[in-house]
């Protein structure tokens, strides 16, 4: 059996490969990446794979039985790119696709949900067996803000008191690996999130506790937060989108308490305390 991993040189993809190598032979794994040379350090076979090159994808999927489709990072292009992969997978005879979607994609107000839902619908219409991993937010999305918070003396955002049940990339990668080697997960949709939710005020308090510096959380309006992000160098459109994510968090779009992720991986998800400690290290 061959397992293909798209985006295998990305931050999530590399971790998935590591977790799969703990569970199955490296000879059964294939990195599907734009530049196979960048995958040489993974210790598995690498094949050229560009979501945009629809005519060439099927050849790269030759012999692949199980495929992990890690969602593209090109927001606005994802629906087309993912459909290219799904069509190629059908042509190549891929038996099962596991897709990384968005937490509560069918009800989320996040702008990201539309493309994920379109991909889920394309999978359902494809005739290929599939599993949906609706991943919540990465904790790293927030711990990446720690240096700025320390420099500025406050953590800023527009998430108000929204509850965020994030998990680390390692947690999500382990779930993907667990699913990919056991086809009993076929046909299922998993809502994956961290065990314990927190607010951005909780995150600020944890940063304060671990650094010994008083770092308050300062809640801004969506417009003011977008302006602040622009001041940090983000393009206007990107800043507005990131600010909208926080508003989604305020609406609890990033919250789930089903603990399906820890049930899949067989242990608790990484705590906020551990994640902050690692980020500070």
What does this 3D model show about the protein?
It is globular, with a radius of gyration of 19 Å. The model has no long low-confidence stretch (mean pLDDT 97). Helix 4 (113-126) links the parallel strand 5 and strand 6 (129-135). It is 43% helix and 15% strand. It is an alpha/beta fold and 281 residues long. It has 2 domains: 3-135, NAD(P)-binding Rossmann-like Domain (Rossmann fold), CATH 3.40.50; 137-167 and 193-257 and 266-281, UDP-galactose 4-epimerase, domain 1 (Alpha-Beta Complex), CATH 3.90.25.10. The N and C termini lie far apart (39 Å).
Question: How do you describe this structure in short?
Answer:
InterPro entries: NAD(P)-bd_dom (IPR016040), NAD(P)-bd_dom_sf (IPR036291), NmrA-type_oxidoreductase (IPR052718). With 281 residues, the chain is α/β, with parallel strands linked by helices. It has helices spanning 11-21, 54-60, 78-92, 113-126, 140-143, 146-152, 169-180, 200-211, 222-231, 236-250, 260-265, 272-280; strands spanning 3-6, 29-33, 45-48, 66-69, 96-102, 129-135, 155-157, 189-192, 217-219.
Please write out the topology:
Layout: E1 3-6, H1 11-21, E2 29-33, E3 45-48, H2 54-60, E4 66-69, H3 78-92, E5 96-102, H4 113-126, E6 129-135, H5 140-143, H6 146-152, E7 155-157, H7 169-180, E8 189-192, H8 200-211, E9 217-219, H9 222-231, H10 236-250, H11 260-265, H12 272-280
Pfam families: NAD_binding_10 (PF13460)
InterPro entries: NAD(P)-bd_dom, NAD(P)-bd_dom_sf, NmrA-type_oxidoreductase
Protein name: SDR family oxidoreductase
């Amino acid at each position: 059996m061959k397992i293909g991993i798209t985006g295998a040189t990305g931050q999530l993809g590399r971790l998935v490969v590591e977790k799969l190598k703990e569970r199955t032979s490296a000879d059964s794994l294939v990195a599907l990446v734009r530049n196979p040379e960048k995958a040489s350090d993974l210790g598995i076979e690498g094949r050229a794979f560009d979501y945009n090159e629809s005519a060439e994808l099927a050849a790269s999927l030759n012999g692949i039985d199980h495929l992990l489709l890690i969602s593209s990072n090109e927001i606005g292009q994802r629906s087309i790119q993912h459909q290219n992969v799904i069509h190629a997978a059908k042509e190549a005879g891929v038996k099962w696709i596991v897709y990384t979607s968005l937490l509560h994609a069918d009800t989320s107000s996040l702008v990201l949900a539309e493309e994920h839902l379109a991909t889920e619908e394309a999978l359902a219409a494809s005739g290929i067996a599939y599993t949906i991993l609706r991943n919540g937010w990465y904790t790293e999305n927030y711990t990446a803000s720690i240096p700025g918070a320390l420099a500025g003396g406050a953590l800023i955002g527009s998430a108000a008191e929204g509850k965020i049940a994030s998990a680390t990339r390692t947690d999500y990668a382990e779930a993907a690996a667990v699913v990919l080697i056991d086809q009993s997960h076929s046909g299922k949709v998993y809502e994956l999130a961290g065990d314990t939710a927190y607010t951005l005020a909780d995150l600020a308090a944890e940063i304060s506790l671990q650094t010994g510096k008083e770092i308050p959380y300062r809640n801004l309006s969506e417009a003011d937060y977008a302006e602040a992000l622009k001041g940090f160098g983000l393009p206007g459109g990107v800043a507005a989108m990131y600010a909208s994510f926080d508003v989604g968090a305020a609406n609890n779009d990033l919250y789930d308490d089903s603990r399906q992720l820890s049930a899949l991986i067989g242990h608790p998800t990484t705590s906020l305390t551990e994640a902050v400690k690692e980020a500070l290290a």
